[in-house]
Amino acid sequence: MKHKGSNLLEKDGTRAVLASLISILIGLVVGAVIILIVGLSDPELGLSGAWDGIRLVFGGLFSTGRSASGTLTFGFNPTNVGNMLFRATPLILTGLSVAVAFKTGLFNIGAPGQYLMGTAATLMLALGIPSKSVPAGLIWIIAFLGGILAGAIWGCIPGLVKAFLNINEVLACIMTNWIAANLVTWMFDGSKYRNLVENTKSGYIYKTSFNGVQTPKLGLDKIFPNSQVNGGILVAILIAVLVYVLMSKTTLGYELKACGANRHAARYAGINDKRNIVLSMAIAGALSGAAASLYYLAGNTEFFWSTYQSLPATGFNGIPVALLAASNPIAVIFTGCFMSMLDIVGLQMTNLTAYNEYITDVIIAVIVYLSAFSLVIKMALGKWGKRKAAAEKETAPVVPPDTGAADGKGGDEG
Amino acid sequence: MTFLIQQTLLYAVPLMIVALAGVFAERSGIINLALEGIMIFGAFVGVLFVNLTQQAGTFDAAKAAGNWVALQGFMLLAMLVAALMGAVFSLLLSFASVNLKADQTIGGTALNLLAPALVLFLIRIIANQNILQMATGDSASWFMIKKSFFGYGRSDEMGFFGSTFIDKTYLATYICILLFVVLSILLYKTRFGLRLRSCGENPQAADSLGINVYKMRYAGTTISGALAGMGGFVYALTTANCASTGDVAGFGFLALAVMIFGNWKPLNIAGAALIFGLFKCIAASYASIDINGDGVFLLKEIGISPHFYRMLPYLITLIVLAFTSKKSRAPKAEGIPYDKGQR
Fold first, then answer.
1. Which CATH topology does A80-340 take?
2. By the CB < 8 Å criterion, does A268 face chain B?
3. Which of A346, B188, B193, B319 has the highest CB neighbour count under 10 A?
């Protein structure tokens, strides 16, 4: 029966998961090595400082701070887990955004711009509609849908120029990102939405809770006390399931994937490739817009409006989320949580050690780098699996010789 | 007018040299989306080199004595270091895309994520803040060419040519222009250039003639990395007061757009870079541009929001690409990993 275990390696899904896990592990190890090198070259940090940093990289989620004697303590920390789920909410959605575009053969690096446009629309609607005359629940829904719509429109632009003018979508996305960053700053500059009440915070927009609009907690704050978690994570998971159904069970999803596999063949088969490219980018944009909506409708998050010099990291981090998940919508839920866990790790690093949160960005970059050749890792795993299977066949002649080959073929298609 | 030309050149020259960096990579068949990341890394390395050398006091005597030749040498050294480390950094891209046949777009994106993360991580540890600056003084007092170097007094006139192209300029700008010309000739008039270009058009044919495609692609990306790293430092030196913040404001991507707009040809790229430099210059200093010298700041008087001017370079890029993309002709084999067995 050992035979079955080694055949698992020939399955595409297993190999994809393994390749992602290997990428994650190497990413974390590289992060640890950098921490060690920096620690050893800085006398203030030293080996013990580096050891603290390395332990936080691997177990930051379970960190409970420092004890009275100054050593790091670890244990289940519901606040950290709750915050992880809260930060995972937008990451899952931007991850889905990148994943949907990937399935259609497009690289949606425009998620930050779509996210910004979603932010602007959501905040303007949530703060602009007076909650005296309109119930807060209705404002929440309008603002959420507004954010989605704004993201979809912004996603359409690279889709349109790609489909009709044959401009590389990567370049178009990058340009729309910077246009969005300037446009959003322009829209908020001098507007009534700027937070002028709390003068300790300059440059921020009001929290949506100023207008009484915020995502219901749905009891999650009881499970994870002191954390920012709210019902948004459930909405994000629901959307992930919907995207899975759309991509795998509907005609539209099939057409989108056909365009991604081979645009010309799809057109030959009677699929309108241009329409599908625009549609795919619109869906991707809508998902990024939804990410921003859920994040800023939480009621306890603030938007720094003078953003023309920087793009939101949440948008870019959708790329590793989608890559690690091999563009599978359900897997995106888990990789989104993993990425937000790294965020928490970064916070713990800044709070508890002399290191800073950027080390987690380095880890993320290494993971993206490795996923660029995940195909190579997958192929190596496949070869290794086959060799193992062949070796076992030799030692166990009871197994009919053709079973392994047949299973292998089935695995490749799945 | 003098101000406008000088400012435009400051922005156009890094754009030009980084766009040429893109050309070297793409003509050899590798899409170098990592230009932005390499620029960030190069800027950091150059600034760090300047900072550390200043702390060591190597050039203090020269600075005190006003020995500007030595200081220019110091700057050239920093440019060289930035170029070297840019080349080393780009090896990550060539290794992934040549040896491992990885997806070049994702590999480039990874480098774009890695560079700011690594740079900010290190800057925070070195400087305890999010910006790394020169240890003493500013880039103008250390590296800028002034008319006093040539024996002119404070109130002496140098004439239009002198005051535009010599006074208050950086030697780095002219080195970049010179390099641009030399490397363009290398790409078009030498055997090496022809071989490099053939690898981006038809690597199978090149291989059949005994050209090592892998080596050529490594060469293309490495030259690309060196130029982008140097361009990043020049950008930081001339427009950001020799400071590194883990950010070059999308300049690397703008260079990519310049490259595509310039149709992968050096002369067109130089023209495109000047146009984009002009828009970047307007965005950065629209309030102090006095076109005909009558003391009226026209662009400020019109009363258009500064946000619009800042948006302009990106908006124009998109519009210009929309009009020119049908005619553009990218190297045929770019982005496709070379596989010896393939026909």
1. ABC transporter involved in vitamin B12 uptake, BtuC (1.10.3470)
2. no
3. A346
Per the CB < 8 A criterion, the answer to whether B260 and B328 are in contact is yes
Question: What tokens were used for B331?
Answer: 């190297």
Residues in chain B within 8 Å Cβ distance of A167: 318, 321-322, 325
Q: How far apart are CA B200 and CA B230, in angstroms?
A: 24
Coil, strand or helix: which one is B210? Answer: coil
Number of structural domains chain B divides into: 1
**A26 vs chain B: nearest CA distance in angstroms?**
14
Percent of chain A whose predicted confidence (pLDDT) is above 70: 92
Give the SS3 label for residue A66.
Answer: strand
Q: What is the pLDDT of residues A214-252, one digit of tens each?
A: 888 877 878 888 888 888 999 999 999 999 999 999 999
The per-residue DSSP string of A156-211 comes to: HHHHHHHHHH---HHHHHHHHHHHHHHHHHHHHTT-TTB--SSTTS-SBBPPGGGG
Interface confidence (ipTM) of the complex: 0.85
- Print burial letters for A305-339: b (CB count within 10 Å at least 16), e (below 16): bbbbeebbbbbbbbbbbbbbbbbbbebbbbbbbbb
- B142: distance to nearest CA of chain A, Å? 27
Domain coverage including residue B202 = 2-150+158-248
Question: What integer pLDDT is reported at residue A407 of this predicted model?
Answer: 42
Check A186 against B311: CB less than 8 A apart: yes
- Residues of chain A numbered 364-393 and touching chain B (CB < 8 Å): 364-366, 368-369, 371-373, 375-376
| Token code pair at residue A205 | 């927009």
Contacts of B239 (CB under 8 A, 6+ apart): B10, B11, B14, B284
